[in-house]
């Protein structure tokens, strides 16, 4: 069967390629699930099997946004513990989270994915680490929700084995055993990970954090990931309290601890990395360890301002993350473009911290680097997968901003006229095509109420 083509013309284009190539008015040709050509002016004449032509006048085309850190299950515990720092917030919410089941995880994943996808995310990830006994197939439920939504997806199969009795934060009934966590993680990789170029589902090994995971789980988790050829993910250096915890428990700071357990390397990415000194950043740069920057969550939990400009200058791969929707209630990644830029300008570099194009790169190509998929997604280039977004910028919200990238990053959240994932439309005119948003809203509301009742009765 002949390959079918979609042609988009007359739009501004920010390719986010190595040279930051942009076109004031250009075209994109999609052939099957690949980008066939990108360039200025009209598309080539006499293209065969064009099934759709889109007039992009008044729009900006960019690579699809790539989310590098999230906790989908938290969708059904939004709006709680709103005046807490990280450790107090975790202690307040772990007892509720430890009572989720498969139906709740599925509904929460639907809500999280829907909110991101309708806002321009084409590649999502979920770091799920809460697996109560008898709760069902949580990983399968999350992956099913991603498949139904139509986005590209990485499941970071998390785990916890350090509970309160061992000096950790999670309640004793909320953790797995070392052996159980490793076996379940390996089974998830075997069942769901796809290593192919155009994979829609991948799996990473992801013990939760130094304060909820034993050293042995960290070490054996890294060995498991490398034996299976998958990536590694965890939380790192999020708060001052975490740094103190590591020094008291392990006699060293978080970065030294990660290096001692095999958790630095080009196959690793860490969430947050707020409290990093010069030697920490140098270690990440030397080993090409990636960072998921989550500015809204860091502000919500009063964690601090990550040194993103210094990381980028040193050569550390950095992407953006929503983080869990219990610490970023909007659940959207496109707002993180703006927040990353603004919050970092409150730091030492002030107005020179980040500009609009650097923020867009964090949310696209930077995220692809962090997930190990920069050769496949993250920029608009011939041969790459057709994951792209057409943002409408001719409405009242953006009409007087001449530069489209500035309009997208500095301005209000732009409507998504079209989002393609693997060459297939997922969003049109700000509405999801594959799932019913209203039904998801009802379902997630019901599951949030059910979880609250169960937690109250415990």
Helices, strands, pairings?
Layout: E1 5-14, E2 22-31, E3 34-40, E4 50-55, E5 59-63, E6 65-66, H1 86-97, H2 102-117, E7 121-128, H3 138-149, E8 152-159, H4 178-192, E9 201-207, H5 215-228, E10 232-236, H6 240-250, H7 254-260, E11 268-272, H8 278-287, E12 290-293, H9 295-300, H10 308-314, E13 318-320, H11 334-344, H12 356-370, E14 388-392, H13 404-410, E15 416-421, E16 424-428, E17 431-432, H14 437-457
Parallel strand pairs: 1-4, 1-5, 6-7, 7-8, 8-9, 10-11, 11-12, 12-13
Antiparallel strand pairs: 1-2, 2-3, 5-14, 14-15, 15-16, 16-17
Helix pairs in contact: 2-3, 2-14, 4-5, 11-12, 12-13
Could you explain how this protein is built, in words?
This protein has 458 residues and is α/β, with parallel strands linked by helices. It is 36% helix and 21% strand. The strands form three sheets. Strands 1, 2, 3, 4, 5, 14, 15, 16 and 17 form a nine-stranded mixed sheet that branches. Helix 2 (102-117) packs parallel to helix 3 (138-149). The longest helix has 21 residues, at 437-457.
Please sum up the structure shown.
The chain is an alpha/beta fold. It has 14 helices and 17 strands.
Low-confidence stretches: none
Main beta sheet: 9 strands, mixed
| Separation, N- and C-terminal Cα atoms | 58 Å
Mean pLDDT: 96
What is the global morphology? globular
Q: Quickly give the structural class.
A: alpha/beta
Oligomer: single chain
In DSSP terms, counting alpha (H) and pi (I) runs of 4 or more, how many helices? 14
Strand content: 15-25%
User: What portion of residues is helical?
Assistant: 25-40%
Radius of gyration: 21 Å
Counting DSSP E segments of at least 2 residues, the number of strands comes to 17
């Amino acid at each position: 069967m002949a390959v079918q083509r979609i042609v988009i013309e007359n739009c501004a284009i920010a390719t986010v390629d190595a040279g930051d190539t942009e076109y004031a008015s250009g075209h994109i040709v999609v052939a099957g699930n690949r980008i066939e050509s990108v360039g200025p002016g009209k598309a080539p004449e006499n293209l065969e099997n064009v099934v759709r032509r889109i007039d992009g006048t008044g729009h900006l085309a960019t690579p699809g946004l790539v989310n590098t850190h999230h906790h989908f299950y938290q969708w059904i515990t939004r709006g709680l513990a709103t005046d807490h720092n990280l450790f107090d917030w975790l202690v307040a919410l772990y007892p509720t989270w430890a009572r989720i089941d498969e139906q709740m995880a599925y509904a929460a994943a639907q809500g999280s994915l829907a909110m991101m996808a309708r806002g321009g995310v084409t590649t999502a990830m979920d770091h799920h680490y809460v697996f109560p006994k008898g709760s069902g197939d949580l990983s399968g439920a999350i992956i099913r929700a991603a498949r139904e939504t139509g986005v590209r997806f990485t499941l970071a199969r998390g785990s916890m084995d350090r509970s309160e009795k061992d000096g950790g934060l999670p309640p004793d009934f909320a953790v797995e055993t070392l052996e159980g966590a490793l076996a379940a993680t390996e089974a998830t990789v075997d069942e769901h990970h796809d290593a192919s170029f155009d994979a829609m589902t991948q799996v990473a090994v992801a013990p939760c954090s130094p304060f909820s995971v034993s050293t042995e789980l960290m070490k054996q988790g890294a060995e498991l990931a490398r034996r299976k050829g998958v990536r590694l993910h965890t939380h790192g250096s999020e708060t001052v309290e975490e740094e103190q915890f590591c020094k008291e428990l392990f006699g060293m700071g978080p970065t030294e601890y990660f290096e001692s357990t095999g958790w630095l390397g080009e196959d690793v990415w860490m969430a947050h990395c707020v409290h990093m000194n010069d030697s920490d950043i140098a270690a990440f740069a030397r080993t090409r360890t990636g960072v998921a920057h989550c500015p809204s969550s860091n502000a919500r939990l009063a964690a601090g301002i990550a040194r993103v400009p210094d990381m980028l200058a040193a050569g550390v791969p950095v992407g953006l993350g929503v983080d869990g929707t219990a610490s970023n209630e909007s659940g959207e990644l496109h707002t993180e473009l703006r927040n990353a830029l603004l919050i970092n300008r409150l730091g030492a570099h002030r107005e020179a911290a980040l500009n609009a194009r650097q923020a867009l790169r964090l949310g696209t190509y930077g995220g692809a680097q962090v997930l190990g998929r920069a050769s496949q997604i993250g920029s608009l280039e011939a041969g790459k997968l057709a994951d792209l977004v057409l943002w409408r910028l001719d409405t009242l919200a953006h009409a007087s901003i001449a530069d489209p990238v500035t309009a997208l990053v500095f301005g209000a959240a732009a409507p998504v006229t079209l989002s393609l994932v693997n060459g297939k439309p997922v969003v049109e005119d700000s509405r999801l095509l594959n799932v019913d948003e209203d039904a998801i809203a009802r379902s997630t509301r019901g599951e949030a109420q059910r979880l609250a009742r169960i937690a109250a009765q415990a």
